[in-house]
């Protein structure tokens, strides 16, 4: 017989809960029991009586303690060494905090860390029109730092973007008032200084809380279509500068040498003057010594001076003067010509001999270049 046959309720597993063949519990009863237990924990009536009320009080206390601990620990935060923290209380600026471990009111305070020590880079580049109506591409880079965190965050919407736009404006203004040759060659430093000054003037009214540390002029070049021509022009200008430097170096090297020669000539002139003066003084002293001797014996002194003079004159000649006794003729022997002709004859005819007749009044010498013997008619004075 089937268990669900009419009149056999004791066989029904859903209704026979206390018998041996107990089936699954009723879902409504299960949910009801669970609701009673939860209500007892939070202070509701429970089938357990007084023990349920004490259990609910302990649970509420523990929950409050845990909530307080979580809230307290959630307020701790750290500001790095290179940063400063901006405190916002209910969205309004409340102050700044220094680096270290800090605590804030969670859900009340908000902390915005700002790096104030790191040096940041900002590039700028583009094609620009110069004063002489040429197009040039300029690349520049600036370095800056944050000095006022409050102004950096609240003065403008984005301080970095505002600085970038200001740099582009300053760069175009300066390039537009400069010539292309200056930008490409000798005026790069002046352009860099002008951009720096113009950028500071632009950002000053906005109080960005930034300071520009340095401005670097990275590159400046003409468009590719005319780059070769400008390269030649730049090379010519560099050659001009090099030649000027070489000329200056040559001038600096030649001038000291010229001054040295002038000084040497001056010293030689002074020495010559001193020598001439001393020689004159020596001659005067010699004359002063000789004058008393001459006054004492004029003829002897005159003869001695004559012989000394003649000795001095004839000591530098190769000719020998011969005074023939008993006549008015005086001859000389050209010893240099005689020795030269003898040497030539010895080279041509080794055994040739020559004779010189000195017994008469006339001396025959070797043929000279004139082909005759020279005679001097000299009267003895």
Automatic annotation (TrEMBL):
A GO term, aspect molecular function:
peptidase activity
Compositionally biased tracts (Polar residues): 351-371
Show the InterPro entries listed in the entry: Band_7 (IPR001107), Band_7/SPFH_dom_sf (IPR036013), HflK (IPR010201), Membrane_HflK_N (IPR020980), Stomatin_HflK_fam (IPR001972)
Entry keyword set:
Hydrolase, Membrane, Protease, Transmembrane, Transmembrane helix
Give the residue ranges for region: Disordered: 1-28, 351-381
| Membrane topology term | Single-pass membrane protein
The record ties this protein, via Pfam families, to: Band_7 (PF01145), HflK_N (PF12221)
Subunit record text: HflC and HflK may interact to form a multimeric complex.
| Function, in words | HflC and HflK could encode or regulate a protease.
Name of this protein: Protein HflK
Q: Which organism is it from?
A: Thalassotalea castellviae
């Amino acid at each position: 017989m089937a268990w669900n046959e009419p009149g056999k309720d004791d066989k029904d597993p859903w209704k026979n809960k206390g018998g041996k063949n107990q089936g699954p519990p009723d879902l409504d009863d299960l949910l009801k029991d669970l609701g009673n237990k939860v209500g007892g924990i939070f202070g509701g009536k429970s089938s357990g009586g007084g023990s349920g009320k004490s259990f609910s009080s302990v649970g509420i206390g523990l929950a409050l303690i845990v909530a307080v601990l979580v809230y307290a620990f959630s307020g701790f935060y750290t500001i790095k060494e290179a940063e400063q923290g901006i405190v916002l209380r209910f969205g309004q600026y409340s102050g700044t905090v220094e680096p270290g471990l800090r605590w804030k009111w969670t859900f009340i305070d908000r902390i915005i860390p700002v790096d104030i020590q790191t040096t940041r880079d900002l590039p700028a580049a583009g094609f620009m029109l110069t004063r002489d109506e040429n197009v040039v591409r300029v690349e520049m880079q600036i370095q800056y730092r944050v000095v006022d965190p409050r102004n950096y965050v609240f003065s403008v919407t984005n301080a970095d973007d505002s600085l970038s736009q200001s740099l582009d404006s300053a760069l175009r203004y300066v390039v537009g008032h400069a010539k292309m040759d200056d930008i490409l060659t000798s005026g790069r430093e002046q352009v860099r200084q002008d951009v720096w000054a113009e950028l500071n003037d632009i950002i000053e009214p906005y109080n960005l809380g930034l300071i520009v540390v340095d401005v670097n002029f990275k590159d400046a070049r003409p468009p590719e279509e005319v780059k070769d021509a400008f390269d030649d022009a730049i090379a010519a200008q560099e050659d001009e500068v090099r030649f000027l430097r070489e000329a200056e170096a040559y001038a600096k090297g030649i001038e000291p040498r010229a001054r040295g020669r002038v000084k040497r000539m001056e010293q030689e002139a002074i020495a010559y003057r001193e020598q001439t003066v001393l020689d004159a003084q020596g001659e005067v002293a010699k004359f002063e010594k000789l004058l008393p001797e001459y006054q004492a014996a004029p003829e002897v002194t005159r003869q001695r001076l004559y012989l000394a003079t003649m000795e001095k004159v004839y000591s530098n000649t190769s000719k020998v003067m011969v005074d023939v006794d008993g006549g008015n003729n005086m001859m000389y022997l050209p010893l240099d010509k005689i020795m030269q002709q003898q040497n030539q004859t010895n080279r041509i005819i080794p055994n040739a001999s020559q004779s010189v007749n000195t017994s008469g009044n006339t001396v025959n010498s070797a043929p000279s270049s004139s082909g005759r013997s020279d005679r001097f008619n000299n009267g003895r004075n």
